[in-house]
Amino acid sequence: MTAPVPSVLITGARAPVALHLARLFHGAGWRVVLADTPAAPLSAASRACAAYVRLPPPRFAFEAYGDALDVLVVRENISLVLPTCEEVFYLARVWQERRPAARLLTPNTRLLQRVHDKFAFIGLCETLGLSVPHTRLLATKEDVAAVRAEASSLVFKPVWSRFASHVLVRPSPEALDRLAPNREAPWVAQQFLPGEELSVYAVAREGRLVAFSLYRSLYRAGKGAGICFEPVEDAAARDFVTRFVAGTGWTGQISFDLMRMADGRVLPLECNPRATSGLHFFRDPHGFVSAVTGETEAVAPDVTRPQTVRLALWLYGLPEALRAGDLGRFRHALGVAEELLDWSGDTAPRRAQWRALGEIAALALRHRISLQRASTRDIEWDGPDQRSI
């Protein structure tokens, strides 16, 4: 008698990383159910998707979101749940309050909140004996005034934010006069670090690092998420992540923004307790899934070429290249980077990205917000009381 096929629920189906996880788990023999709020997210078109379930928006209808998950987990016989975006915070709360039968691959809500908080994260690193940039909390106008004279040597950002939104890098003192932090929506003033910014995607099980991918972004969507990126190696970066996940007993996906200094040190900037683009450097389904589920000890990335979403590269990379007067660099990126949406035998998602983009664009127009903000508006988590900008 054959064993039943296990079912995994992957949330945040709008994200390319969700599509990638779906393909990996499908390739490893799992039944993949995807869930999210949009009507036609990118991943729903994949042949890896056995079912797509549309959920209420967790940020605006949390109780209905929890009810829908209760039904979904039972009906689809889900044994494992993998978040990909900021819905991880809402899922952790659902699991804390309702205790669904499936295993949610993420830490508890307290630890999630601590690492997402850009000030608390730096403090946590310090308690673990890790070197950090000097970082101050700004909760009042008086706090801002106290660092005004040092503005040219600091980076300012909201404690709760994503995609480098609202970040001020070495601003003029006058630019700080517009800041109005408060205790529910504080900012941080962080020492400016001259160096090379690196990004990490990792998976850990009970404090042991089982997957690690280090990369740098060649092009970004504005100041934020990378849209064309290449793998790199750095022993100091790996050591930082190994010590962090061990010190916190981390289980689940975790990502970091780090700065590599000229002297070889690697210092943390911030943490994202979710999936990021470094996942795309893993393409071996059995190796990756076995490491995540505990069947094997660890897995290494098996992709060496730069990765990109060409549509995003044209939308964001070309304007950046034109502003910088460096079309040669853009053409080189187009030539060497692989389309990360491509997957043997699964061509539909590449076509589906146009419909998914159209849905996000319509939302952006309706609410008069950017495409980037529209892509996450319903799942953003801005602190316990949700009053941050």
How does this model look, in words?
The protein is α/β, with parallel strands linked by helices and 389 residues long. The protein has 3 domains: 1-106 and 347-389, Rossmann fold; 134-191; 198-342, D-amino Acid Aminotransferase, Chain A, domain 1 (2-Layer Sandwich). The protein is built from 13 helices and 16 strands. It has helices spanning 16-27, 62-75, 87-98, 109-116, 118-127, 141-147, 173-176, 235-248, 285-293, 310-324, 327-336, 348-367, 371-374, and strands at 7-11, 31-36, 49-54, 78-82, 103-104, 135-138, 154-158, 168-169, 187-191, 196-205, 208-220, 226-231, 252-260, 266-272, 307-308, 338-339. Strands 14-13-10-11-12-15-16 form a 7-stranded mixed sheet, with helices on both faces. A hairpin with a 5-residue loop joins strand 13 (252-260) and strand 14. The model has no long low-confidence stretch (mean pLDDT 93).
Which features would summarize this protein structure in a list?
13 helices; 389 residues; five-stranded parallel β-sheet; Rossmann fold; 36% helix; seven-stranded mixed β-sheet; alpha/beta; D-amino Acid Aminotransferase, Chain A, domain 1; 16 strands
List the helices and strands and how they pair.
Layout: E1 7-11, H1 16-27, E2 31-36, E3 49-54, H2 62-75, E4 78-82, H3 87-98, E5 103-104, H4 109-116, H5 118-127, E6 135-138, H6 141-147, E7 154-158, E8 168-169, H7 173-176, E9 187-191, E10 196-205, E11 208-220, E12 226-231, H8 235-248, E13 252-260, E14 266-272, H9 285-293, E15 307-308, H10 310-324, H11 327-336, E16 338-339, H12 348-367, H13 371-374
Parallel strand pairs: 1-2, 1-4, 2-3, 4-5, 15-16
Antiparallel strand pairs: 6-9, 7-8, 7-9, 10-11, 10-13, 11-12, 12-15, 13-14
Helix pairs in contact: 1-9, 2-3, 10-11
